[in-house]
């Protein structure tokens, strides 16, 4: 919800929002025990409403309501104390009375107050009513005339589930802001029994109704009750003696007539005597209980405590408390009625079943089904689930664990897919990992011990839930916790990203039968205080967990561990566990990267409670292997029995194995029952990129700023000299120079990213209008909101002018901020450091003030003046808000205020803490059809076409900014594609024709590859087709192409720009101090090149990128031809497949197997017949040349005029040769000219082509070895080099996934595992020839001979070397001996008969590569 600060005539909605904002401003004073004075309220109200009461901008009645808002917020702060109302009513009510007395006396009335009979209930009287109604956790509570929520908040903290009705529009708006989780209506309270769908189901009604038509209001409340329900109502004292109460007693049981103390409502503006009337929905007998008169609050409390029990009341949550309800910590845990769901528990019935194999393919995915058990009854998941095809090929282990669950959980709508999580988590948690550890003496660190060191402790095995956004991870987590508690482990910790997610946790906990009060936030306990909860779920955030000890008080981590106890063996859940990334130090882009305090805290918690049952939960667990450091409980490292001894060993294997290794990790964890990663099916989802074509104006704006940045950079170099950071003999301070250059580069990158997004806005807006017109609604995913720039500009403006602003909210502020605060202007003087090295220090005047370099200052002022005249564009968020207006756009971001356009003026609006919830509700209810969100506001929220929402239009989601973090991008995509949706969304990544945009796409594409590999077992599964493989430029091929580009630039071979111009415009130095090109290692990296490219004029950056991309294409094409590109899991679909042999080569302790499978596969070759060749000639008339090889008489079709890269990655002229066998080889022009290919006459060439094509074998037959199953434990024994992980498909649909080896590699692998390979040695001529000539193996023959391939006289031949004593025998068997420089060499002719005789005489004893 947003509130206008200075709207001239606030609307009702704005009035409610302004009151909310003012109330939040009053709250800090109230919380500190400060009396609220009129002067303070005038200032707060003037700020909130944009003027004074004298101007008519606000009334004192509105000020009183703002104080009531503050009272409600403060009551929530005191929830842990107020929740004990039944246990210590006197102390609790006295506490509330002290806060009532801090408020102002309501001495002025408004027309609306008189019209609606509005006199809010003081908090202490509200507590009496809630105590009389006996509100308990889970009760359905109605407040028919809810006002500002003074009664409602006490019912809420008692555990009630609220429905709030308020006819007055302003108060209704206030209630929606204060109680976003409650039900709301705005009807005449007398009509509620017919207009509220839950009428008849309320356990209790607490009310302070209008005294006009009082009897009608009381009877309407009675009609809304469930049988045996109770009403506690504030009434005028005179009602107790009238005839209407006697008539009421005939239809219900009157339980109490209590006269409240005199002037109970004095602070709230009336001295009318009042009473508390309590009656139950039970057949009336006409009898009225005696009237009780209370002179004091204590007497009133005593009377209420004598009330009979409400017969439909929930079991009482009894709590013990200290003598007074204060914040004083107690070391004694509080007994509670929490975890009522454990009253009945039972074992979950299910039937294990065998794995039935992979299901049907759905694009990159396979349809998901629970594969290892049949549940007790039909439990379908509410959405169609899939998993990556690679994961689907990997069977999960058998299940044997029998969980115990609360009966309410078993009876809930929990699906079989969510129960599967409970089974595998319980099974994983039943084991202890090998390896021993010890804590440091101070408990703030840990180290490993030898596996047999009994002085250390072991870690319990953990589990990782990697389900995608929208699958229902929260319910699964709640079920895991419930299962642990049903086993008697009644304490649990739930760690998540931010405090607001506690409401999501409570929602999910309720779905499995729990109560709201079962989950308590750590933030409700003071820093360093003991946690007094005897049992339940402690919810905390990563940011809270990392808070260190201070002022003699224990850290938050110590606080949690002390509550859990070191022998704790319950559930410890790390939700959104990717927030623990960087839990260990490692290599970063700029050297060694320190471990984050947040990551360390999460890691240390796991070692402080080693027996805890840890569950990691994240759809985006790690964007790179280093970010898995927070997960030692998966057993990937840590002992001699683990796949890797240390985390460093794991990291090295990941670096060596690349993406293929990352894919393997996820599949291995699933095979061991430690990981599940399902996602909602993308069937029905449309991915339709939206491209913004640059206009002439766009190009002019971009080019103007590119020129400006080049000027600023020149001025920066001059300023470095003027300030003496750089001297005549070189750099005086590398640190100062590096900092200045880094600040400039960072500013450039941020600015052009913002400008790029802003340029897209017009195209996005036009498409949004079309989508809304077509019946859709729009969601825009953004990274930034420009809030910091806005706040800087607002700080320069008087608050009096916030009603009519004129500030620049374009990305220009990034540059202005840099020039103002980071551009070097302070003079420096040379100095020496402690090591005698030259450095600089600030030059100070006689008063100790820094001296400003006048030359540098002039350079800065020149740049600032130039900026003021440049055109700019607003950010995408502001552009959308200004175009559609805030009344049509829901904003869900981290901004606390914003500038909007109203009546043609810039006006500041404040956004309260509930604004994001209100805006989300407005979108989901259809009040707004456009929503913009960022990660700061969108975490945990749903924007999909949920069947529960009024707005079920199809969502069209725009990815306007890819950003830098793959996990954020994917989390955002999951906001509109979730369970229970009416329509699958349309995803529209927004791009431009600016080549430099590759900078951002490259980073996100690379990280999506890693993210998909680690979290889904398949690199392609995460981006779902939105990013292409070629979008990633952060790889070895791109680096080679960049070095080639730099070399060409140095050699003057880049036509679009000279070396000097390139260095000047990009500020990249390619030459060293001697003017020589730097070594490849010292040349700029691809990220720096792309950053600087983005800041060039459009024409320059497009031309430069084309020159770079031409080289990249040549390198990649050569790599594809050589088979050295790692594309991850690829399908090999054989036309014919024969399984020769399958053998188990290793069995894991879990029963998971490693297999070696031998196949004979045949592929139908894609041959080029003459018609195909003629088609190529037609398509390339000027460049196609028919050729014949004069040495082999083979035919080819030559395409000229191409380019490729040579061995040094330099661009060279090239040709392509098509052959009848289906090959299309690229070769340099020089290589072709030195070959035996000659141009041929067309008719002769066609005849030769047809003849050669007719003689070709249409089948390609290979022998293939697949290592399948569990691979991580044997990874180090597999052949090094290119790690080919493939999925083999048979024509019948069977699938096998694993690492492909050739025969030599397979034999070496078996041997290292201790298997006898004697019978597996090749023993036929064709196998031996294929191994040596095609797979480049070397065969050892007995005795002392070696069969290998050699090039002799320009031809590749089969040679036998070694024991010369056997040469005569070999000649007798048919071999040819030739002399080279007097040395005899033995060659085997191309005749299998000869080779057969050799193999029979000299059997193969070994195969080597």
From TrEMBL:
PROSITE patterns: N6_MTASE. Belongs to the SBNO family. This is Strawberry notch family protein. InterPro entries: DNA_methylase_N6_adenine_CS, P-loop_NTPase, SAM-dependent_MTases_sf, SBNO_Helicase_C_dom, SNO, SNO_AAA. Transmembrane segments: none annotated. Residues 380-704 form the Strawberry notch AAA domain. It comes from Asticcacaulis aquaticus. Pfam families: AAA_34 (PF13872), Helicase_C_4 (PF13871). Residues 876-1131 form the Strawberry notch helicase C domain.
